[in-house]
Design brief:
Largest sheet: 8 strands, mixed
Strand order of the largest sheet: 3-2-1-4-7-6-8-5
Helix content: 55-70%
CATH class of the largest domain: Alpha Beta
InterPro entries: Nucleotide-diphossugar_trans
Protein name: Glycosyltransferase family 2 protein
Number of helices: 19
Mean pLDDT: 94
CATH topology of the largest domain: Spore Coat Polysaccharide Biosynthesis Protein SpsA, Chain A
CATH architecture of the largest domain: Alpha-Beta Complex
Oligomer: single chain
Order of helices and strands: HHEHEHEHEEHEHEHHEHHHHHHHHHH
Family: Belongs to the glycosyltransferase 2 family.
GO molecular function, one term: glycosyltransferase activity
Low-confidence stretches: none
Keywords: Glycosyltransferase, Membrane, Transferase, Transmembrane, Transmembrane helix
Length: 500
Amino acid sequence: MTITAPSTFFGWLLSALILIGALPMLCSVFQFFLVGLHRWFSHYDRADPAHMPRVAVLVPAWNEALVLDFSVERMMALDYPQDRLRLVIVDDASTDDTPDLLREKQERYPGRIVVLRRQQGGQGKSHTLNHGLDVILDDDWAEAVLITDADVVFAPDAIAKLARHLADPEVGAVMGFIREASAPPHWLSRYIGYEYATAQLAARRAQNVIGAQACLAGGAQLLSRDNLEAQGGRIDTTTLAEDTVTTFLTQLGGRKVIFDPNAQCFAEEPASVTGLWKQRLRWSRGNLQVSRRFHSVFFRRSTVHHLGNAWLGLQWYSTLLLPAFMVLVSVALVVMWLFDAGDANLLFRIFWSISAFAFVFTTTFTLTLDRRVAARSWRQAFVFPGLVNLSLMAYVIAPGPMHDLIRASCEVIGLGWTEETRSLLALFAYAWTSLCMLFAWLIFRLDRLTWMRPVLSVFMLVVGFGPFLCSITFAAYVAQLRGAATTWDKTEKTGKVGIS
């Protein structure tokens, strides 16, 4: 095909919109180049394995009887000096067996477990954490506070590996790698496990390299006492992303935030499409709120922190605005197709060629980062974009065979290979980057129908887990524009965590 430049300003504008839509993929590729440099920026050279500060482990709990028994027992068995580890559990007015369970644990481990109870709960995780922080910081015992969730189970050496980084006085917070460990694994958890590898093992390694972290792991964050007190001894209650606010405030205060991929813990993730949608909607809305609060931090140099790093800003906004980019790409392609089908086809091929390269490169790289993720979720990794997106990538890579396959398929199902059929297929392909989010939203709606749930995995396979996450982010746009209440929806857990 002969490459010709657009002949009008309108053509140039549409072309620019399509190419801008490829920015998130290019940022992702660059991220993995940064990951390759992590060995020189891991902070291990300034960590001291002998450094074991007194750590108060703070756990908010609301109706967590199903998960607390196992997680508390594992916490009590950690490879960390018993006299330097104290478990503080804040019961947020639970109405199940949580109070009885905590009373039993407190009697079994006297002096090692502190149980606090709020008589009027339901305000959310941040308020519950602050109740615990008021007590912890009221005396000078705790030198660091580990904030985690009731269902999170730590590897025996996890806290020691986190604490060693606090030997560096410049470090204000350290986070570990939360491994998806639902047992037995189900189709949804396998997708989440792979996603966690890209969002944690890859992204946070890259952020270590540039010296700026975007978000502390909510269930595995160790904060120095000095850092907490510098933030008023409180966790943010104004957003749905209190962990991200803590991350930003730590760095704005001149302290480092470090990710240690070897400090591992295990967590159960939502087992239903609806449960995952609610969890991620809260996260996405929180990120939008954080973006509004800290917008002046991005893309601005500072001698105090590195949050103004250009790549971090591009990565943050290209992820946050990915649904908007997807809509722009499809609209631009469809409009261009109406005026000049040749130019539309060329830009379509360029966009999906970039997508194909980015997908193969990042997927292969991610699977090499962790053998357990690769063994557990390699199938979900390769179908993460969905079969339709994979077909579009295959079409631009091998147009001849794919053209023959599509033509034969159309003839088999009775559509024929007419000009009208080809036009409809082109229109569908150009609009798919938007349509995929609509179909992903329909998967969420279908989850409400019990009889449809057995086939939702097939629908997700076709549409893609990636588009499903983008659909949630788009829903977050709508929720924020509507002024939806900032309320906390508890993620239901069953306590089925596999750590072998």
